[in-house]
Amino acid sequence: MHRLLQVVENCGVLKPSLKHSFWSEEEYMRTLNLHQLATFQAVAKHGSYVRAAEELHFSQPAVSAQIRQLEDALGVKLFEQIGRKTHLTSAGKELNRYSEKIFAVIEETLEMMDALRSPSSGRLSVGADTTVGTYVIPGLLGKFHQMYPDVEITLDVVNRAALVDALVNNRIDMAIVGRVPDDIPVVIEPFSPNELVLIAAPTHRLAGLVDVPFAELAREHFLLREMGSGTRAALEEFFQQADVPLQVSMQVGNNSAIKQGVAAGLGIALISRAAIDMELETNRLVILNVEGFPIMRQWRLVHLKDKHLSATAHAFKSFLLQHADWRVRRKE
């Protein structure tokens, strides 16, 4: 109760704005005052104005005045004197029930604000592009969860276009992306290198060859990710700069389907090296040694410049940067 009284002292009267309200002037005057409600609860608990005054460190006349003002505001009698005992009226019993709910909500609110000041609880919403979100971030989130087991974590794994939309519309706290959006103000932190390699089936004609000329790729058919994919954009840009036509055999929506298609001989593809560890170990795929490849990119941690990061989000950002690849951190 002591903590709530501090809030009561700071809050005072709860009034709606008459200018922006549909309340009548009469209804506007019938306002609830937290001071009065706290005083009312003390009298109801003790059944005595004197003992309530002692608890609240008020004078007894001041307690009586608060109750009269509350009764006037509500238009009902809250207490009745029977002998030497002060009893709640029917209206008083109802008000006591609702005032307990009011102060319970205030206490819950204060507890939530305390939690938000601490990284040990609360919510964290992270976005990541499909590759880093599938093969890199989950392991780091697992370690973070071990440190902060009470944090509720949401991870959205989508392509770059969807990530930018989530950032702009404040659906996520931060994102790990390959290509940084250039049309919105963001804070950028380098996180990890992203090595984009050409992959093929082990039986492919270029498999095992060294220093394959880039011109050879003009004869190949590629499996591409969907529009909006950073990997697709990197490959298209590379071919445009070389003025070489890019032949597309299939558009595929995720890395798993890309790998399956390449292993089945449907074509070759550009993919992040982080996504093919298992396939290389089992010899289902090979990396082609072609002039100009791999294409080196970076994953970066970004959030809106004017985004207010919670204590939990700050803790996760610091955690990620502590685990960032030292090579990209040193270059920045």
Explain what the structure shows.
It is built from 14 helices and 13 strands. The protein is an alpha/beta fold. Helix 3 (34-46) crosses helix 4, helix 3 crosses helix 6 (90-116) and helix 4 (49-56) crosses helix 5. The strands form 4 sheets. Strands 5, 6, 7, 8, 11, 12 and 13 form a 7-stranded mixed sheet that branches. Strands 1-2 form a two-stranded antiparallel ribbon. It has 2 domains: 2-116, Winged helix-like DNA-binding domain superfamily/Winged helix DNA-binding domain (Arc Repressor Mutant, subunit A), CATH 1.10.10; 123-332, 3-Layer(aba) Sandwich (D-Maltodextrin-Binding Protein, domain 2), CATH 3.40.190. 45% of the residues lie in helices and 22% in strands. Helix 10 links the parallel strand 9 (221-224) and strand 10. It has helices at residues 2-11, 25-29, 34-46, 49-56, 60-74, 90-116, 130-135, 137-147, 160-168, 230-242, 255-263, 277-281, 311-322, 326-331, and strands at residues 13-14, 32-33, 79-82, 85-88, 121-128, 150-157, 174-177, 186-200, 221-224, 247-251, 269-272, 286-287, 295-304. The protein is rod-shaped, with a radius of gyration of 32 Å.
List keywords for this structure.
7-stranded mixed sheet, disordered C terminus, alpha/beta, Arc Repressor Mutant, subunit A, D-Maltodextrin-Binding Protein, domain 2, 14 helices, 332 residues, 13 strands, 2 domains
Q: SSE layout and pairings?
A:
Elements: H1 2-11, E1 13-14, H2 25-29, E2 32-33, H3 34-46, H4 49-56, H5 60-74, E3 79-82, E4 85-88, H6 90-116, E5 121-128, H7 130-135, H8 137-147, E6 150-157, H9 160-168, E7 174-177, E8 186-200, E9 221-224, H10 230-242, E10 247-251, H11 255-263, E11 269-272, H12 277-281, E12 286-287, E13 295-304, H13 311-322, H14 326-331
Parallel strand pairs: 5-6, 5-7, 9-10
Antiparallel strand pairs: 1-2, 3-4, 7-13, 8-11, 8-12, 8-13
Helix pairs in contact: 3-4, 3-5, 3-6, 4-5
